[in-house]
Amino acid sequence: MQDWKQHKATFASIAVSPVLWLVAFFIVPLAVVWLYSFGRNVGLTEIDISGTFSNYGRALEPLYLEIFGKSVAVAALTTLICLIIGFPIALAITFAQPKWRPWMLLAIMLPFWTNLLIRTYALITVLRTEGYVNKSLGWFWEGASSLKVMVGMAPLSTWEPLPLLYNNFAVILGLVYVHLPFMVLPLYAALDRLDRSLIEASLDLGAGHFRTLTQIVAPLAAPGIISGVIITFVPALGAYLTPDLMGGPDSQMIANVIERQFKRANDWPFGAALSFLLMYATFILIALQTLRNRSAERRS
Amino acid sequence: MTEKQPVISIRNVTKRFGNMVAVDNVSIDILEGEFFVLLGPSGCGKTTLLRMIAGFEMPSEGQILIGGQDMAGVSPNQRPVNMVFQSYAVFPHMSVADNVAYGLKISGVAKPEIRTRVDEALELVSLGGLGQRMPDQLSGGQRQRVALARGLVMRPQVLLLDEPLSALDAKLRAQMQFELAELQDNVGITFVTVTHDQDEALSMACRIAVMNKGDVAQLAGPSDLYEHPANRFVADFIGSVNIFEGKLTVDEPEQAVVDCPEVGRVYLNHGVTGAHDTTVWVAIRPEKITMLPAGKAKAKDSPDGHNIANGQIKGLSYLGDVTVYEVRLESGRSIRVSRPNLSRWDQEDFSWDDKVSLHWHPTSPIVLLS
Question: What angle do CA A273, A274, A276 make, to 5 degrees?
Answer without folding.
Answer: 65
